[in-house]
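Notes, Module 5: Reading structure tokens.

Key idea: the token line is not a picture. It is a compressed description, and you learn to read it the same way you learned to read a sequence, by spotting repeated patterns. We will look at two proteins. The first is printed below with its tokens.
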Amino acid sequence: MEQAAGLQLLAVRLDAIDPDPDQPRSVFNEDALRELSDSIRQDGVIQPIEVTQSSPGRYLIVHGERRWRAAQLAGLETIPAVVRRRNYDEVTRFVRQVVENIQREDLNDVDRAAALLRLRKLMQEEVDATRRDRGAGGGEVKDEPWAGKVTWAKVGGRLGYSRQRIHQLIQLLDLPEEIKDAVRGGVLSERDTRVYQGLTAVQQRSLHRARMAGELSQADVRPIARLLREAPDMTVAAATRLLQQAASTDPVAGVSPAPPPPRFPAGEGDSSDTRAADPSGIMPARVGRPTSIERLDWVRGHLARVDRQGLTAAERRELLRLLRLIRDDVASLMKALEGSDE
């Protein structure tokens, strides 16, 4: 079927179609492919793939490789394909592949980052070729499509990405391979890996392995990473011990003095309250065992230091779980105290 836009819709033999070796997507989920294959076996291929003719009788996939693979699994001989009469230039074909995968959310963040890197390279090669061609013709070189150098902002302009988002993705490519594999496998997202930024490669691998093995709670990963950034020679084990010591420090044991309790506004407290005796509003140094009031002030001080911003979904869930337990403990204590007044 010849279309007005210069396209053809053909039933193309599957064995006459080749996948693009440079396409941005490198991971195909086998379970999802089998599900799509079952659907195709029952209902056929509803949406045609897009190809361009690479040689007489041969076609190169522009987008739709997943449907092509699933059709093979389903045992089909042909697949509906939109064929363009003209060949794509390499940049245009690659942009369409990246955009199609982005819109369908089929690209993991590592493949997305690698695609951005390749797209910038292709765009730069096109600019350089344009400059050489115009220079060879003796004409003045100007009005190139992206000027002399392709910046990340110009790459983002082709895909609708902000420069900040591009840099976040590109940083993934500097991480150790095992962390990138976790992103490719859907275990981590790009956001989850930001905690590794600024660490040495050894620290990144060690922290990641401890995280994946369940040796660290999600709430512990960020403070441990903070300790590691401050001490590039520190190991994950040493940072974990420091964090555990800080968490287990109890004023009762006298290991460390309790943090100063919050200041009270004027008028609160009475003359018997040690805070009111000190015009600075700060509790004097403790002598002996802390009182119940001091313990609660110590808890309040630590709750006030809990980070509220920049949390991952897993960290937020863990914080909410712990806060619910604290809420139940507080409700139980209040019930006991209120009952003792009766």
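Here is the second protein, with the sequence above and the tokens below, as before.
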Amino acid sequence: MERISKHQLVAMIILFEIGSAALFEIGISAKQDAWLVMLIGMIPGFLLFMLFLAIQRLEPDKDLIQMLIQYFGSFFGRLIAFSYVCNFMYESMRNVRDFGDLTLMTFLSKTPISVVMLVMMLLASYVLFKGVEVFFRVAEFMLLGVLFFYLLLIILYFSSGIVHIDRLFPILENGIIPVLKGAFPDPILFPFGQLVLFLMYWNYLNDKDDIVKISIRAYVFVGIFLTILSILNIAILGVPYVSVSNLPLLASVRLIQIADFLERFDAFVVLLLYVGIFIKVTLWYLAAVLGLGRLLNTNYRKLILPVGGIIYGTSHLPPSWTYHIWLGKFLGLKYLQAPFFIVFIPTLLFLFMFVKKKPDQAK
């Protein structure tokens, strides 16, 4: 069986969580307190994350699909497991579409979006053929570069004098209620709740004794990092601009100008976003392939191209970026797609596991 190290796991959690979350200003409905939305959202998000870890600790050598079948029975377990596979494909599709629209909005406006998304899918498929272990090694290699360039970006922000901390004040001007409304459920479900995906990967860890400690460290780092990005977006652009901007991070970078010649860092930022989106596309894609391989009792590599074809085909369905964003919120919240897969089923699974494990431990 393929194995991953604790450093590779930490790298993947960080890159996955930063991923496309850096594209958006989560919690901007709370205006200049949007950064507090992210910070407060970390708390219930952390409780949810601990639930995922508790599930994995009860069955350290199994992935989510195996656990669902074992504890919900062959019929209902397989039915729920298949619904997770479909959800993994859907989430991968959303990120493929993010990649396509981002590319058209920034650099290749005249290139067909089908070509742009095809390049992403071919690259992701190639990585999947190499296997889980190789993919996680790639993430470990990429992490230092990504963090270095984000740090350089922050230094450039302050060096160019465009950071205005006064735009963050007054704090809690309208009280705590708008912040609490913004924190529930947005940052809990996205990005923190999406860590449910790692129930497909934690079983690959070669030293499972460290699973809780290293995963928590990665979680805390990501939460603080995203809070800092939120603070910078507001301090640079101001609430009115951030609230209407599709890509606030990219807009803030365009304001950097040092010594009248260091400017236009758009490509620099888009490259960072591409790395994050690539990680998310591939990780969701791999989870779908691994899960379907479990259900069909076959080698997952045989399913890479068929599953990739479905993801690529469905990524063409949203007619526009605006519709694509609306569809995610519509399905995720109104039809409870996100709460079902992130909160309801994991909670139910943990209760089933706890009830069954308790008599077994008493024997």
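Summary for the second protein:
- The chain has a mean pLDDT of 90.
- The beta strands are 257-258, 262-263.
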